[in-house]
Amino acid sequence: QTIYLKDYTPFGFTVESVELTFRLAPHATRVLSKIRFAPNPEATDRTFFLHGEDLRLISARIDGREVNPELSDRGLTCAVPERAFTWEAEVEIDPANNTALEGLYMSSGMYCTQCEAEGFRKITFYPDRPDVMSVFTVRIEGDLPVMLSNGNKAGQGAGWAEWHDPWPKPAYLFALVAGDLVNHPDSFTTGSGRAVELNIWVRPGDLHKCAFGMEALKRSMTWDEEVYGREYDLDIFNIVAVDDFNMGAMENNGLNIFNSSAVLASPETATDANFERIEAIIAHEYFHNWTGNRITCRDWFQLCLKEGLTVFRDAQFTSDVRSAPVKRIGDVMDLRGRQFPEDNGPLSHPVRPESFQEINNFYTATVYEKGAEVIGMLKRLVGEEAYYKAVELYFERHDGDAATIEDWLKVFEDTTGRDLGQFKRWYSQSGTPRLTVEEAWEPGETGAEGVPASRPPSRDLAAEQGASDDSKGSQGAPDQVRGAAREQASGGAAPTGGGTYTLTFRQETRPTPGQEEKLPQVIPIAVGLLGPNGAEVRPTEVLEMTQAEQSFRFTGLATKPVPSILRDFSAPVVLDRSLTSTENAFLLAHDTDPFNRWEAGRNLARATLLDMATGDARPDGDYLDGLTAVLRDRGLDPALRAQMLALPTQSEIAQMQHDRGQTPDPEAIYTAHETLKLRMAEHLQDLLPVLYAENQIEAPYRPDADQASKRDLSTAVLGLLSRIDGGAQAAQQYARADNMTLQLSALAGLLIAGKGEAELEAFQQQWKDDRLVMDKWFGLQVSHAAPARAAEVAERLTRHPDFTLTNPNRFRAVLGALGMNHAGFHHGSGKGYALVADKLIALDAKNPQTTARMCALFQTWRRYDASRQAHARAALERIAATPGLSRDTTEMVTRMLAGA
Ligand code: ARG
Ligand code: ZN
């Protein structure tokens, strides 16, 4: 059954208050609800339908009188009075058998909930939709020492606790936790003087892993006050760590529930990357309090309203507290690695989807990460000041609302006077726009300074067309008008030369499922110009492209410049521009924009990997020399140098070949990757030990950006060194490592060198009681397995006594790692596909949500040759044919097989 955005209608009733009582018992929890309903004046349909799934109805009453509702497996309907009334129901649920981890379930002996998106209907009968908001009062009865729910404490005694959340909220933000928990307490005073009690609740053995999360929470609270003027609004903020959790974390009002991997960290057990991710997720969930909770979504099609914005906000936070360029580059790598394949394959959907069968399948990189990119473009187009003014208006106008993307865009239109009609296509059009660019240089003649440049004679008709579109486009693009005018003026007033440089862009978005025709989108293209000596002759300017083809002119230039295009990755597009390796090497050496400097190195690496994957055994000398120079530059942040050293993923190379109409060969790409790394190690062999030594840290471990930056570089260096020193340095590092970052990178180095058997065993002995560390142990072996062995290694690990289908982290550690082992998963034997299919089929019966998410590993299956496609198709069809397959997985597999 498909649900459509266009079919939205409000619910026939409003909910004035909700009172819930939980009588906890592992297999027979009773949930008593008392809900005050009133006819909704904004609705016409008065059908009283309450969602409800996997509930045993014990009794139902309206205004105290027993009623007999009509039950289906999706919920109930009942005749109700034509005035306000009180609905009371008692249901029984079985949290201990709830392996779907949705609704109320048990994890390591504790009760916990996950209600987003549609889990509340597994707790009691309710209009489980985000536009139905109410004030909740919750009583929990049980013999557990800690019993928590949303909002403020309302009372507690022997065997009970009561909570009251004064802020009206949709049911998806409901939460309950009960268990034998201990807390890491702290406090925070908001700008206006509210004293807030802060707690991180964990199982007793995890108390030493809370300190960092707590600091991150306080930093987030301060940051949101300083940057967005948003203060926390309850007396208490609780975070709970849960081992079995489908996603990263959940922003329930006053009671955030986290996957333990997203909050627990100590230097001994967590890597620098873990610390940074935890900081970002804590910030993300905290920021939801305003962007998500105080202002929520009208319906689930608007998911990006809260997620895109909140991802954007957490990225701003990370850029502020750590390194902005490093964060930006990391995010773009992630976008290209996860969102681009999605946007350009069978699972492609708009940032605001228009239909779905199972909303859990749309918590995607497109909704989240592309959604955040769209906010970033909006901010770039309207400017810093207007952005914060518009967001302020959004809070003012919509606090307490269940809002839409239209509401969001309207505050920007009202603040700036811009028409965002075309910009809105970013929300409705799926697929990644591809941008090509042509340059034209017209040297100035003596005395010609200041004279408006004429078109270059060589332009073809299409380009002329585009050029005339230029003026039309500029009308809708005030920044560009200003920019262009400034260029013209500066060309006349203070001529440094009479040359005119023209960039002509073309944009094209290929058809995606359900969308054959694509219209031009607004693309902010940040451009700077460098002179031939490497100095910047024009600082960054944002060109606002609105047409399918459009030219932008820079006048008054003395010599032909070298452009730096799409600085800071100013739009989520593919910039299809083939530069010579000399041009890339020039930008790698001189670009003042850190992102584009990195991108130039990336371009060189891509080109050389593509060549090597199709038979050329020798890496590009310009690449190796450029890299050497960058690595030697001690003025450059070590983390940035580490990012320069990282190669484009094998999957990215496969995607590039596919885009060019070639069929990628995963084995050949793997070999190219391995060979290039070896050649890099050889080329850099004198420098590597120096860099390694320079980036060792004497001081005690701190998870901050400064230390992490050095460890990033030493880790990247160790990876290369291990290819030429037989693992000697890695063995030494393993022996002395006193933190997980160094221990794990040493173990990885040993595996790279074909060693590490003993260390793997020792690691297991050392960490067998720490689930999160053991996830790393499982994952590392799969990601470092050679292509022909990866499926076998993963299969063996699924038979390890500590492997389990019920813990999503463990499942992802093994099968997710196999999916990310490009040449292993896509191995010609089909063993990778078959194993993943086997395990997904087994998991689906227990946990549809995680199964469906993991199915996406297959999304690129049509890139490969006929034999691989046949194997992948067989695996997908086998999943599809599983009796009783969940709605979640059915939708995913069907989409991936569509058109086949
Ligand atoms: N809103 C959560 C977050 O982004 C994600 C929860 C998603 N849960 C789900 N079952 N789809 O922070
Ligand atoms: Zn979120």
From TrEMBL:
<dbReference type="Pfam" id="PF17432">
    <property type="entry name" value="DUF3458_C"/>
</dbReference>
<keyword id="KW-0378">Hydrolase</keyword>
<feature type="domain" description="Peptidase M1 membrane alanine aminopeptidase">
    <location>
        <begin position="212"/>
        <end position="426"/>
    </location>
</feature>
<dbReference type="InterPro" id="IPR042097">
    <property type="entry name" value="Aminopeptidase_N-like_N_sf"/>
</dbReference>
<dbReference type="InterPro" id="IPR045357">
    <property type="entry name" value="Aminopeptidase_N-like_N"/>
</dbReference>
<dbReference type="InterPro" id="IPR012779">
    <property type="entry name" value="Peptidase_M1_pepN"/>
</dbReference>
<dbReference type="Pfam" id="PF17900">
    <property type="entry name" value="Peptidase_M1_N"/>
</dbReference>
<dbReference type="InterPro" id="IPR038438">
    <property type="entry name" value="PepN_Ig-like_sf"/>
</dbReference>
<dbReference type="GO" id="GO:0008270">
    <property type="term" value="F:zinc ion binding"/>
</dbReference>
<keyword id="KW-0031">Aminopeptidase</keyword>
<dbReference type="InterPro" id="IPR027268">
    <property type="entry name" value="Peptidase_M4/M1_CTD_sf"/>
</dbReference>
<dbReference type="Pfam" id="PF01433">
    <property type="entry name" value="Peptidase_M1"/>
</dbReference>
<dbReference type="InterPro" id="IPR037144">
    <property type="entry name" value="Peptidase_M1_pepN_C_sf"/>
</dbReference>
<feature type="compositionally biased region" description="Polar residues">
    <location>
        <begin position="503"/>
        <end position="512"/>
    </location>
</feature>
<dbReference type="GO" id="GO:0008237">
    <property type="term" value="F:metallopeptidase activity"/>
</dbReference>
<feature type="domain" description="Peptidase M1 alanyl aminopeptidase C-terminal">
    <location>
        <begin position="583"/>
        <end position="898"/>
    </location>
</feature>
<feature type="region of interest" description="Disordered">
    <location>
        <begin position="443"/>
        <end position="516"/>
    </location>
</feature>
<keyword id="KW-0479">Metal-binding</keyword>
<dbReference type="GO" id="GO:0016285">
    <property type="term" value="F:alanyl aminopeptidase activity"/>
</dbReference>
<feature type="domain" description="Aminopeptidase N-like N-terminal">
    <location>
        <begin position="98"/>
        <end position="173"/>
    </location>
</feature>
<protein>
    <recommendedName>
        <fullName>Aminopeptidase N</fullName>
        <ecNumber>3.4.11.2</ecNumber>
    </recommendedName>
</protein>
<keyword id="KW-0645">Protease</keyword>
<dbReference type="InterPro" id="IPR024601">
    <property type="entry name" value="Peptidase_M1_pepN_C"/>
</dbReference>
<feature type="domain" description="Peptidase M1 alanyl aminopeptidase Ig-like fold">
    <location>
        <begin position="499"/>
        <end position="577"/>
    </location>
</feature>
<keyword id="KW-0482">Metalloprotease</keyword>
<dbReference type="InterPro" id="IPR001930">
    <property type="entry name" value="Peptidase_M1"/>
</dbReference>
<dbReference type="InterPro" id="IPR035414">
    <property type="entry name" value="Peptidase_M1_pepN_Ig-like"/>
</dbReference>
<keyword id="KW-0862">Zinc</keyword>
<dbReference type="GO" id="GO:0006508">
    <property type="term" value="P:proteolysis"/>
</dbReference>
<dbReference type="Pfam" id="PF11940">
    <property type="entry name" value="DUF3458"/>
</dbReference>
<dbReference type="InterPro" id="IPR014782">
    <property type="entry name" value="Peptidase_M1_dom"/>
</dbReference>
<comment type="similarity">
    <text>Belongs to the peptidase M1 family.</text>
</comment>
